[in-house]
Amino acid sequence: MSATNHVRRERQELAELMLAVGPDAPTLCEGWTTRDLAAHLIIREARPDAGLGIVFRPLSGWTERVQRAEASKSYPELVRKVRVGPPTLSAMSLPGAEALLNLFEYVVHHEDVLRAQPDWTPRELPADLADELWSRLTRGVRLMYRSMPVGVTLVRTDGEGGSVVAHEGSPMVTLSGTALELLMRSYGRSPVRVEVEGDPDAVAAFEDGTILAL
Predict the structure, then answer these.
(1) Residue 81's closest CA among 56, 44, 114?
(2) Spatial strand order in the sheet of 195-197
(3) Range 146-149, long-range pairs (CB < 8 A, 24+ positions)
């Protein structure tokens, strides 16, 4: 299945999950309910004027105001917009944009809702989706871990396995888990099922470090 089709499937499954848990369910995004997350996804795709504040902090106040206004709308309508995707005139509708810009976005936010629920269980991703996540993660991981005070190596335990040095340094800490779990840990999410190994002081320094998610 293509990356675009994976994004569209994640979008539909996230919309269904949002409806199932309701507008006030928690997410792993600090301070956000599912209503807030839906509003975030909508303005990111439909409001480029507000979406800039997601990346450029000086504009974050405007983004927050637009997001609050969007979040005040009917929850079923918010979920419908998430399900439908970007409007025709949005840059997100350009050929290839969904595959390039939304794969991590929708996989991670799908997990943000799922894992915030008390009875969550891990998903088993299609093998080709897991492979694509790992491939993209290995390409961007050095930027994400660039501020770590210790060396970091990621070891994939599913699929065909593999490893990547996320940050050169000594001592070295090793993170082992599936492609999905390593992706979630690389975005600073918790809970995740990742084994962190290394010298105790190095592991403590790693846990206190900052991951700069893309």
Answers:
(1) 44
(2) 162-167, 151-156, 172-177, 195-197
(3) 146/212, 147/209, 147/210, 147/211, 147/212, 148/206, 148/209, 148/210, 148/211, 149/205, 149/206, 149/208, 149/209
| Residue ranges, CATH 3.30.1050, the chain | 128-208
Q: Quick one: pLDDT at residue 50? A: 67
The DSSP 8-state label assigned to residue 116 in this structure reads T
| pTM reported for the whole predicted model | 0.92
The CATH number of domain 128-208 is 2.60.40: no
Own/partner long-range contacts of 57-63 (Cβ < 8 Å, ≥24 apart): none
Q: What is the pLDDT of residues 165-179, one digit of tens each?
A: 999 999 999 999 999
User: Which of 73, 75, 70 shows the shortest CA–CA distance to 51?
Assistant: 70
3-state secondary structure 27-86: CCCCCCEHHHHHHHHHHHHHCHHHHHHHHCHHHHHHHHHHHHHHHCCCHHHHHHHHHHCC
Q: Which residue has the tokens 């996320």?
A: 166
Helix (H) or strand (E) holding 6: helix 3-21
Amino acid at 7: V
